Amino acid sequence: MYVDPTTSICGVPALRVRDSLRDVAHMQVSAAYFADRLKIPPRKAERLLVALVEKCLLQLASSLCEGGKWYELTLNGSTFALASGARPIARATAEKRVSEFLQRVKRVNTDDYYLYAVEKVIAFGSYLSDADRLNDIDLAVELRPKHGDRGIQKLKESARVRKVRESGRRFHNLVERLHWPQAEVFRYLKSRSRSISLHQADDPILTRAVSRQVFPGIS
Fold first, then answer.
1. Is 2 contained in some domain?
2. Is residue 93 packed enough to be buried (19+ CB in 10 Å), middle (13-18) or exposed (0-12)?
């Protein structure tokens, strides 16, 4: 999916809105979240939330928390959150980007720094089409802990989070902090490539899309 970086939603740049939805993930949020995350007035955050619901990017949460209305991402919202602001690329360029991506997968799986290994990579979307130019490359990644002992894995993850916090990194919320060891892998795999759109392997969009496993290769 492509997001025109020149557009806006309720006066907020579309790419900033996209980034705020990326942080939502599986959380439930209210207008206060957008006011804090985007540094906008509460009333503007309320209008933005209404607009996101009207665009079917957010919906009223199925299981409500106490203290007012809470919202969660829709399938369209999850897709928008992972959309690219990059211009379409040629098929040959896309093939090169995927090859480079798979090289990074191998690096993750052999480098002891990373606490998670890549179990599987699934391609879907326009990359599997016959199009000569693609808006982005949709890849879903399944991770697995590198350490079989859950206790050791948990201790290593806690130590990693503590170390990056000591180095100055600040997390927006508890979920982001707890998932940092996995996020490190995703950040490296993406390597700031605007052409690659990364998804979790359990993304509901995969139940509706034609897909193909690209790692490990299927003989």
1. no
2. middle
Same domain flag for 97 and 74: no
Q: What is the pTM of this model?
A: 0.69
164 and 117 share one domain: yes
pLDDT by 10s per residue, the chain, length 219: 678 888 999 999 999 999 899 878 667 899 999 999 999 999 999 999 999 999 999 998 876 555 568 898 888 888 788 777 778 899 999 999 999 999 999 999 999 999 999 999 999 988 999 989 988 899 999 999 999 999 999 999 999 999 999 999 888 778 888 899 999 999 999 998 888 988 889 887 787 788 999 999 764
Q: Mark whether 61 and 116 lie in a shared domain.
A: no
Spatial contact of 55 and 8, defined as CB atoms under 8 Å apart = no
* In a shared domain, residues 184 and 115: yes
